[in-house]
Design goal:
This protein is an alpha+beta fold. 35% of the residues lie in helices and 24% in strands. The longest helix is centred in the last third of the chain and has 35 residues.
Length: 293
């Protein structure tokens, strides 16, 4: 009898729990008709924002800002290398996209992170780790050499030019064909900065002088300042030595002539020594200001 009641109670409990379980399952399952703007991320990261453009911008194009008070983007040009801003990215690679209907030809621009960038073989084949900058083709990158002052970022994939998706023939200002290049895509970590490999047009300096100057100034220093600093330092040392030598010599002569005035002579000698050190310190301080400012 008790077993029968127990079985009846268990059956009643299961009957009561089944609807709740169904409700829980339904609550955990998203509706098939629900809409969402969220898209799966496939890498990249970094800062991405939507911008208007005068015309549609191809994904992978390096862009610059334009439009003044109403920021727009356009393909970056090699004439305005320092105005490189970011790269147009595929919105399907973003974890979240919010469209703005007021932006004409809206393009999503990444200013940091790692994304695919259009490149050409103008600067030669690109290998992993090469710096990338703008080529002669607007919005298209290339391997940075030692002449470009600004780089766009660093390649994390390679492009030999053997398997691209098109080729372009470059021409000079007179219209003469100069080079045929292949176009492709390279994954680049965006980091717009001065080209570390830029060849200096300034006079070469000994590496030791360069290291000392940069250590003092904490920035690159031109040859003129380095050589001027050397001249001031040398002049200060010479003046200090001359003053010190003259003071010691004259003091010894004075003691030989009048041994009884040793105290006053030594006092004067001490003043001369301090004066020579002061001259040296002033000279070194002038050099520091010259390098630092």
């Amino acid at each position: 009898m008790k077993i029968g009641r127990l079985l009846s109670g268990m059956a009643l409990a299961v009957a009561l729990l089944l609807p709740l379980g169904g409700a829980v399952a339904l609550a955990a399952t998203p509706s098939s008709t629900a809409k969402t703007d969220t898209k799966k991320a496939t890498g990249g990261g970094g800062n991405v924002q939507g911008y208007a453009a005068d015309k549609a911008i191809q994904i992978g194009t390096i862009v610059q800002l334009s439009g003044g008070d109403s920021p727009k983007v356009s393909a970056a040009t090699s004439k305005n290398l320092n105005q490189m801003y970011g790269v147009a990215v595929d919105p399907h690679q973003l974890s979240l996209t919010i469209s703005n209907a007021s932006l004409a030809n809206e393009s999503y621009i990444a200013t940091s992170g790692t994304y695919n960038v259009l490149v050409s073989t103008e600067g030669g084949p690109i290998t992993t780790g090469d710096f990338v900058t703008l080529s002669a083709i607007d919005g298209v990158g290339m391997k940075a050499g030692t002449d470009q002052p600004i780089i766009f970022g660093r390649a994390v994939s390679a492009f030999s030019g053997k398997s691209g998706f098109g080729s372009v023939t470059l021409k000079d200002t007179t219209g003469q064909e100069t080079q045929k290049v292949t176009l492709g895509l390279v994954s680049v970590t965006i980091n717009i900065e001065r080209n570390p490999n830029k060849k200096s047009t300034k006079a070469d300096l000994p590496k030791l002088l360069q290291r000392i100057g940069q250590a003092v100034a904490e920035k690159p220093i031109g040859p003129l300042r380095i050589y001027l600093s050397l001249a001031i330092t040398g002049l200060s040392i010479i003046i200090a030595i001359v003053v010190l030598y003259s003071g010691i010599r004259n003091s010894l002569i004075a003691i030989g002539r009048n041994p009884l005035s040793k105290k006053s002579i030594f006092r004067g000698l001490l003043e001369i020594i301090l004066t020579s050190f002061l001259i040296l310190i002033i000279g070194l301080f002038a050099v520091y200001l010259l390098l630092k400012l």
